[in-house]
Automatic annotation (TrEMBL):
It comes from the Bacteria. GO terms for molecular function: ATP binding; DNA binding; hydrolase activity. SMART domains: DEXDc. This is DUF559 domain-containing protein. Residues 438-589 form the Helicase C-terminal domain. Residues 188-368 form the Helicase ATP-binding domain. InterPro entries: Helicase/UvrB_N, Helicase_ATP-bd, Helicase_C-like, Helicase_Restrict-Modif_Enz, P-loop_NTPase, Restrct_endonuc-II-like, Restrct_endonuc-II-like_dom. GO terms for cellular component: cytosol. Pfam families: Helicase_C (PF00271), MTES_1575 (PF18741), ResIII (PF04851).
Amino acid sequence: MNNSRLVDLVAGQSFLEDAFVRWVLASAATRDIARHIVPQHKVNVEDHQYRLDFLLQGATRRVAVELDGYEFHSDKKAFVYDRIRQNDLTGLGYTVLRFSYDAIRSHTARCVSQLQAVLRSDSALAAYVVKDPIVPVPDDMDGNALWLATPASRRPSAQVSYFESVRKRFDMRPLRDCQREAMVALANYYRRGGLNAACVMSVGAGKTALGVASALAFARTRSLVITPGRVIRGTFATALDPGTAGNVLYTLRGGALIPGCRAPKTKILDSSEGSIRSVTREALLDAEVIVTNFHSINAASDREDLLEKLRPDDIDLIVIDEAHMAAAHTYQRLLTHFPKARRLLMSACFSRADGKKISADVVYRYRLIDSVADGHAKHLRAHRFTPQVEQTRYEILWPNGKREDIVGKEALLSVMEDESRLARITATSEEPINHVMQIVRQCLALQTHRLSPVRPRVLFSALGQRHAEQISRIANSHGIACASLHHSMGDAAIAATRTRFEHESGSLQAIVQLKMLGQGYDLPAISIVVPMRPYGSFGEFYQFVGRGIRIIHHPQLTASQQQHLDLIYHGELGLDDHLETLRVENDMDPHPADDDAFGDPPVPDRTDGGRGGVHVPDAVVLAEYGDSHQQLLHGIDRVEARREERELNALAQKYAAYAATTPNPRSFDDFVAVVRSTHG
């Protein structure tokens, strides 16, 4: 049986069956007992046929293991049926052992002892009994943590809400480990009466799936999902659409999230389905999940906005994605309007561009290095282009025709603190862009070789339209098929350009975008990101880098194949501090605020090439030809050390629970060895 664990050799067909194998059987017996186990064994009794959860076939004993969950065996009819069934099995010579969810979860050691007593009574099965078993306290039997957080009502079954029916069948196994951990943390938080929860989840960790799972698991009557813009709103719309291949409800890689349940009735606002102003209150109340963006909620009362059509008790769960983007007065009004609703704020980074603080209770953190270690994020490889010369000449051309000279790196860095001056800066040499393109070309060739047959893409950022067009022109001269993307293009041109870039059959390898493909944009094939502009806030920089951080899943790319995201940047753009913050990840959490929930709204950014009624000339930032330096942001040794650190910390928590419930606990080292070899 090679080196497989018992949990790998004996597969259950339900959460509870898997829990029995992992926490009871694996502690009671060695893995070789698997040859005596038959899952879902059929037994015929007269005109009845029963299906045993597990049959343990010994030399003289046949042990029928029956597992009782919450949703079955709970009413009078089921009670009678179970007794008749057990008597039939006993009459056929079976030894029947019954384990309930509560027994496995709260009395694990007693369950192990009971099973071992029966195994010892058979000469064949006794050979596999573990002499001095270590019995960890289950830490993942929280399939019913959702029930604990949101208890079922006492209404007749005909009046059970959609969300109650979903919680009966909700299966967290298809979720990633980090998403399951976040769900359990949220359940514990809401169960204690908390309302204002935050999850800090690395880019690429799967916040959309967490948001959908939470919207289904913790609501009672209706969920409201708020996003900062169309891109993320569209992502949630896809995730909740059962007719789309990328939906979260049924097509996660591990299986269906809500097996045996219909999809929630979902209303997507401000889309092709209609404007918020045209939707009726009746249409909103008919939905179980409402998805919109914050533009549908005005900072002040408006008869046509969303809050005027919903009453305080119409919504009891609010999911806010990219919560660091929250506009203060709008979100204050939202939370005030639904004062008793549970809230989930999600973001990879709660650092706001305006420096204001966000108040929330962080219940779960999942860092970028954890995402890399778990195989959800690419390794980040940074290439820094450093000019060889100390002094570089720039000029700022003001609207009145006045020119301002900028000489040297320090002067340039001071300009970067002032967006109005930065937007007007120009330089005449294209040599540094050519040098950056040489690095891009080298990285693209390497990525193309390693990711075949997937076609890697390059994402550039720029300052203005003319700058974007210049970068695109130079990229094409280096053999990189590239186009620019900006809001001044028509909708048809934008759609056509994105299709050429995003589809595997498309003709573009690269896009130079102006604040369009930001937070929430999901194209894992982006394998090279090139910021050709400075970023005033870490959050904005992290969101740009995050567009390429997600792992590419493809049948011909093995899970063990290491994937990299190449970040190519100019040393004079002032991005080194942001990279260091990303390295140590010390600016990710929301901080308690003394004044309000979200602070004041950010100052509008006017580096948009002249839109918004403010004249801003196009800008080009260049520097002299120099050297480039390459480094991994999180080295392999550090990633592995972090993985080991997380595992040991998790095992220490399990050991504490084990030692607190065991009169004569074994050593921590023994415990770690057993858990790793039997439970994983």
